[in-house]
Amino acid sequence: MTFKLPDLPYAADALLPYMSEQTLNIHHGKHHKGYVDKLNAAVKGTDYEGLDLLDVVRGAHEKGDTDVFNNAAQAWNHGFFWLCMSPDRLDAPGGKLASRIEETFGSLPHLRTKFISEGMARFGSGWVWLVEESDGTLDVVSTANGGLPQAAGQKPLLTCDLWEHAYYLDYQNARQKYLEAFFDHLADWTFAAGCFEKQGDPDILAA
Ligand code: MN3
Fold it and tell me: How far is the CA of 143 from the centre of ligand 1 (A)?
């Protein structure tokens, strides 16, 4: 069994004008595919072969298998990231996630400020996440490189890719403009609310 590159859940031009077709094609077809291909090469003939992607991530994290971890985590992170955006998004979350955001951050604009500032504060490559802690409270965290919140026992609800390959063609060095566009025009609150309401890890193959 080998890991497969999941299809984008929308057309490559569906996120215009906030994310270009060129960015999505290169990001998905070259970067994401590269992580999947390198992961398949790295697990071939090892105990990781045949495991679910997140089990590979967890096992490699525990054993300190850096190459397997980096590629498995990046394969998972990108599959999750595509689902965190939608051309048919709602401007705000509903249901239980909406009330938990108010309880934790005070309001959606306060979460927005925290999400963007956390994304700006991450030096170099990584990811910014809205997560649920094990006690049910929410937080905004960032991880370096391929890191993901499950490694810290947190459940991811929403993420934005902070690697330059995610935004450089469209925003050049203006990471803040990219983060603002993600939060205001791309973030799929329906998906985040679904992750929040479901038990267990978000299923990146569910779309
Ligand atoms: Mn990326």
Answer: 13
Q: How far apart are CA 95 and CA 104, in angstroms?
A: 15
Average pLDDT, rounded, for the chain: 95
Rounded to the nearest whole angstrom, what is the distance from the C-alpha of residue 99 to the centroid of ligand 1?
Answer: 31
CA of 103 to the centre of ligand 1 (A): 31
Angle at 83 between CA 32 and CA 191, to 5 degrees: 160
- C-alpha–C-alpha distance, residues 129 and 37, integer Å: 25
Question: Is the pTM higher than 0.90?
Answer: yes
Distances (CA, A) of 31 to 34, 74, 101, 190: 5, 9, 32, 26
Q: Does residue 205 carry a pLDDT above 60?
A: no
CATH placement of domain 19-207: 3.55.40.20
Question: Which is more confident, 23 or 205?
Answer: 23
Query: What's the 28 CA to ligand 1 centre distance in angstroms?
Result: 8
Is residue 105's pLDDT more than 60? yes
Burial of 186 (0-12, 13-18, 19+ CB in 10 A): middle
pLDDT at 1: 60
β-bridge pairing 155-161 and 126-132: antiparallel
Q: How many Å lie between the centroid of ligand 1 and the Cα of residue 125? A: 9
CA of 96 to the centre of ligand 1 (A): 29
